[in-house]
Design brief:
Layout lengths: L5 H9 L33 E4 L3 E6 L6 E2 L20 E4 L2 H6 L1 E2 L5 H9 L7 E10 L2 E11 L2 E10 L11 E10 L10 E8 L14 E4 L11
Parallel strand pairs: 8-10
Antiparallel strand pairs: 1-7, 2-9, 3-5, 4-6, 6-9, 7-8, 10-11
Length: 227
Amino acid sequence: MSPPTRRRVLQAATGLATGLAGCLDGTAESTRTSTAAADQGASGPANGKLSDPETVSLRATADRIPVWLPDGDSNDDEWPTQDSRYGDHVVIDAQKRADRVEIADLPDSERARTFLDETDYAAETVYLETMRIEECFRLELCHVSWASDSVGTDYARDVRSWDEACAADERVAESWLIRIPDAIDRDEVHGYSSSMGTGSCSHGPSGETGGGASTGGANAGTDGGGQ
C-alpha cells in the first residue's frame, strides 16, 4: 500500500466538511449553507460537480494577467503578460500556498485576497484559472467538476452590456478563483479541462448545464504549469 499523501493525512486529522454559496458579485457576501454534489468516501477526495460555486473573478486589460502564482525563480513584483500563459491552472490547497498568490491592483483585488484567506483548506480547495476572451464578451461560470487527479470547468460566453465600452479586436484576461468544497491534493492533480458555450448557463433540475464547445482538453502535467 502506498503511503498516504500529506493532504489525506490532514483530512484524517481534521475531518471533512462541505459547503457552498451562490456566486459572489460586487455586493454579495459569502455564505456557506448549500450542499455540494459530491460523493465523499472515506478513502479521500471524491468526484464532484457543482453549479454556482463560490467565486471571485478579476478582469485585466493592457495584456496583463489579474491573478497569478509566482514560481520560486520569478520576481514577485513582475506583472506577467497574457502571452506568458503564466499559471493558467493552479490548485491552491493550503494557506501557505495562498499567501504566495499575487493579485494585481484592480477592482475587487481586496475581495479576492479575502476569498483566499477565508477558505478552510482542511476541507476546501481554491482553483485558479485564467481565461482569454474578446473584450466585448463576458464569462459566466456554469459549473466546476473535480476528481482526485483532475479539475474541469464549463463557462458561458455572452456579449457585454451595450453601455460598456469595448474594442472588438482587443482581448482581455479573466482570472477566476473557484472554491471547491472538497480537499484536493495539488500533487495528485495532473489533468485540466475547460469548455465554453455561448449565451448563459442553463441549469436544469439536477444542476446540469447546457453543452458548450470545448476550448481545451485535459492538460497533463503539474498544476499551474509546474508551479
